[in-house]
Amino acid sequence: MKFFCFLRFLALLLILLVNTAIAEGAIDCPEKVFTEQELTVVVKQLRESRSDLPQAFKRPLVRVSRLRCLYLYFEYNDSDFSNNYNVFTFDPYGELVEFSVTN
Q1: Contacts 24+ apart (CB under 8 A), 66-75
Q2: Which of 2, 25, 52, 90, CA to CA, is 20 to 30 A from 11?
Q3: Three-state DSSP class for 55?
Q4: Distance between CA 100 and CA 44 in Å, rounded?
């Protein structure tokens, strides 16, 4: 458990450093822009290869938002839209940085 807390801390630190560098103009976002479909495929592949990720909802409602160069992949439970969702944070290259589960 402590290891995962440490990893989450490192991920948040990375996000902070990337956002700070972007705000200063030191980093430009890559030209490649990921679509919702592409990130859905990435999440599916990650779930197949990793056991620590949350299971997919039976009927998910997916939304993708950008925070500068980062992608926030929101996955809502269609039957309980307000309280049950997962968030996957991806870096500009499509690598998973962090995920969280809200029940």
Answers
A1: 67/19, 68/18, 68/19, 68/22, 68/29, 69/18, 69/22, 69/27, 69/29, 69/30, 70/15, 70/18, 70/19, 70/97, 71/34, 71/39, 73/39, 73/40, 73/43, 75/43
A2: 25
A3: coil
A4: 16
The beta-strand segments (E) located in the chain are: 60-67, 70-77, 85-90, 96-102
Using alpha carbons only, give the angle 54, 12, 98 rounded to the nearest 5 degrees.
Answer: 20
User: Can you give the residue ranges of every domain in the chain?
Assistant: 30-102
From first to last of the 103 residues of the chain, give the pLDDT tens digit. Answer: 555 555 565 566 567 666 665 555 556 888 889 999 999 999 999 999 999 999 888 888 999 999 889 999 999 887 766 678 899 999 999 999 999 988 7
What is this structure's pTM?
A: 0.71
How far apart CA 11 and CA 96 sit, in angstroms, is 10
